[in-house]
């Protein structure tokens, strides 16, 4: 039975129907066993009462046999009473048993003078009877010692004789099975109702509109967890699709202008061959393609960092990383570093190095005389601050600078060839490391603050920080 499976043609497709079917089969088996036991119990109980009654009738009649002779058998219409000799011949009988063959056979010999029997003659109702041997004293008194016995019985009740008991129990089993199956159907339907609602809502969701969410039932059962997981997946899918659309629109927008200019220059070179310098046309085309390639490379880097998880993160000492990047910046205004010892986070060293490089390049571009870099712990976070002494960023532009291809007027003046993707890449990398990157208030210049989570236990280890330069 452990390896038995319902044939696929007989197995319903609906979970609700399968649950109700299995409940029906199990309840039918269990109730059949219970009904069988109930039938035996009722039969035994009725037979026990009949044995007690017939034994009382037989013993009372035997007790009445005395010196005055053998009295008449009991006259109750339902009692079948017979007096038989050792050859099982009827000597006398009650009115109900008159003219009948012996109620049972053989004659009760042996030491057991009291026997309970159920005799079922062919084509007639079974008789429940008690066979009692007459006392030896009475046998010697009336029949010269020949053994005699008294049969006292009653016909089996119609409830048992006509199998109505089994019929009633079978009807009860079927009704209870039907009731249990209906209850299982209702309970399964109620349980699976949220699943149907989730399915209907999912069919309404399309790639064009991922704003819909599946209904989320209360509680913490499996269906509620499924709904929460589905909504979380839809949130991530919606975010990913939005990012892809944004990526495609930004690339097409930023590449449209240089490609249109390149096409115009090439068409002019073809139409006005004598008036156009081929060398100048090729040089301009090379510069345009270089800009397009820079835009594509930066966008691919942004997309790669945004969509790829940081697999197998490694320990990165932010203080050491900041000092190395500052030492590499030999051009421009000087960079001064203050760092606590052992400020270590888990992440991608190459990506974090790219963040510091972009922040230092941006700070040196706008600084007047110096750039300060500070690395420290703040609770359970590592904080890297890059501060320049330039003109700063207006509060209304502090979030715009992290948008792809957004370049403020001063930035375009200081770096005409820039793509406007450096700070956007820094923000995306910070998000990928579960951190934040913001522009915070400062007395002068722009103050970029990168916050990254410390590993468990790292904050307590740094309770006595020391600054190094």
UniProtKB/TrEMBL annotation:
Record's SMART domains? HAMP, HATPase_c, HisKA
Task: Keywords in alphabetical order, please.
Answer: Kinase, Membrane, Phosphoprotein, Transferase, Transmembrane, Transmembrane helix, Two-component regulatory system
Q: For the HAMP domain, which residue ranges apply?
A: 189-242
Q: What is its EC number?
A: 2.7.13.3
**Residues forming coiled coils:** none
Reactions catalysed according to its record: ATP + protein L-histidine = ADP + protein N-phospho-L-histidine
Q: Where are the transmembrane segments?
A: 20-42, 167-185
What's one GO MF term for it?
Answer: phosphorelay sensor kinase activity
The record places domain Histidine kinase at 250-456
- Give one Pfam hit by family name: HAMP
User: What is the name of this protein?
Assistant: histidine kinase
Organism the protein comes from:
Microbispora rosea
Query: What is the taxonomic lineage of the source species?
Result: Bacteria, Bacillati, Actinomycetota, Actinomycetes, Streptosporangiales
């Amino acid at each position: 039975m452990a390896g038995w499976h319902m044939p696929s043609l007989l197995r319903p497709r609906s979970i609700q129907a399968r649950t109700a079917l299995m409940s029906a089969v199990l309840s039918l088996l269990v109730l059949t066993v219970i009904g069988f036991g109930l039938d035996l119990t009722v039969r035994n109980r009725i037979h026990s009462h009949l044995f007690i009654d017939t034994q009382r009738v037989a013993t009372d009649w035997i007790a009445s046999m005395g010196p005055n002779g053998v009295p008449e058998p009991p006259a109750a219409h339902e009692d079948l009473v017979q007096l038989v000799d050792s050859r099982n011949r009827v000597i006398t009988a009650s009115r109900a048993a008159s003219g009948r063959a012996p109620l049972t056979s053989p004659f009760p010999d042996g030491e057991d003078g009291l026997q309970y029997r159920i005799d079922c003659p062919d084509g007639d109702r079974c008789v429940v009877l008690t066979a009692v041997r007459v006392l030896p004293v009475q046998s010697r008194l009336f029949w010269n010692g020949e053994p005699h016995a008294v049969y006292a019985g009653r016909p089996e009740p119609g409830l048992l004789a006509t199998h109505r008991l089994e019929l009633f129990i079978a009807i009860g089993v079927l009704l209870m099975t039907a009731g249990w199956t209906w209850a299982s159907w209702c309970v399964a339907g109620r349980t699976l109702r949220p699943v149907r609602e989730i399915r209907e809502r999912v069919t309404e969701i399309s790639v064009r509109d991922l704003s819909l969410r599946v209904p989320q039932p209360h509680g913490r059962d499996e269906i509620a967890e499924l709904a929460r997981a589905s909504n979380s997946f839809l949130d991530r899918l919606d975010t990913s699709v939005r990012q892809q659309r944004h990526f495609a629109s930004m690339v097409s927008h930023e590449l449209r202008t240089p490609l249109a200019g390149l096409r115009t220059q090439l068409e002019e070179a073809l139409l006005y061959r004598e008036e156009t310098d081929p060398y100048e046309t090729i040089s301009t085309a090379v510069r345009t393609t270089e800009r397009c390639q820079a835009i594509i490379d930066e966008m691919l880097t942004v997309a790669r960092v945004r969509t790829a998880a940081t697999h197998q993160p490694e320990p990165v000492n932010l203080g050491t990383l900041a000092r190395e990047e500052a030492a590499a910046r030999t051009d421009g205004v000087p960079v001064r570093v203050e760092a606590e010892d052992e400020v270590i986070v888990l992440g991608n060293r190459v990506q974090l190095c790219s963040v510091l490089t972009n922040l230092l390049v941006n700070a040196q571009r706008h600084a007047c005389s110096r750039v300060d870099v500070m690395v420290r712990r703040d609770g359970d976070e590592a904080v890297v601050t890059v501060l320049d002494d330039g003109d700063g960023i207006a509060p209304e532009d502090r979030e715009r600078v992290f948008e792809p291809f957004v370049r403020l007027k001063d930035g375009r003046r200081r770096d005409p060839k820039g793509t406007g993707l450096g700070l956007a890449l820094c923000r995306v990398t910070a998000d990928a490391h579960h951190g934040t990157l913001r522009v915070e208030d400062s007395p002068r210049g722009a103050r970029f603050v990168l916050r990254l989570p410390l590993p468990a236990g790292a904050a307590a280890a740094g309770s006595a920080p020391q600054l190094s330069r």
